[in-house]
């Protein structure tokens, strides 16, 4: 929800595309109002397709509030994608100082980055 609330604050969100990989087969209704002016896709991607998505992404936005390891962060970094995430759980150990950290409840800070 943090990502979608912050994305909804972006003035140029209509020029951006959101790609959600994994999870539910389609975007949950609760998130739809925040992306109504944008293209938003929910995709099931094979490993090579996911790597291509990371490579072409403006950034991986990963506002995890609890993370077991942070594999998507490592995968995105391997593909050269910038990462925006929260400083909690194991994420700082995985990502170090190579990512942009934003507070997990600081919605206004996310679009400012």
Strand order of the largest sheet: 3-4-5
Indicate the CATH architecture: 3-Layer(aba) Sandwich
* Major beta sheet summary: 3 strands, parallel
Q: Which parts are unreliable, with pLDDT below 50 for 5 consecutive residues or more?
A: none
Q: Give the helix proportion (percent range).
A: 25-40%
The CATH homologous superfamily = Glycogen Phosphorylase B
Give the radius of gyration.
14 Å
Total strand segments: 5
Structural class by SSE content: alpha/beta
Q: How many helices does DSSP assign?
A: 5
Averaged pLDDT: 91
| SSE ordering | HEEHEHEHEH
How much of the residues is beta strand, in percent? 15-25%
CATH topology: Rossmann fold
Apparent shape: globular
**N- and C-termini, Cα separation:** 17 Å
Protein architecture, described:
This protein has one domain: 3-Layer(aba) Sandwich (Rossmann fold). The protein is about 30% helix and about 15% strand. It has five helices and five strands, in the order αββαβαβαβα. It is globular and about 35 Å long.
Features:
single chain; 113 residues; alpha/beta; Rossmann fold; two-stranded parallel sheet; 5 helices; globular
Fold topology:
Layout: H1 2-7, E1 17-21, E2 39-43, H2 47-56, E3 60-62, H3 71-78, E4 83-85, H4 91-95, E5 100-101, H5 109-112
Parallel strand pairs: 1-2, 3-4, 4-5
Compact description:
The radius of gyration is 14 Å and the shape is globular. The relative contact order is 0.18.
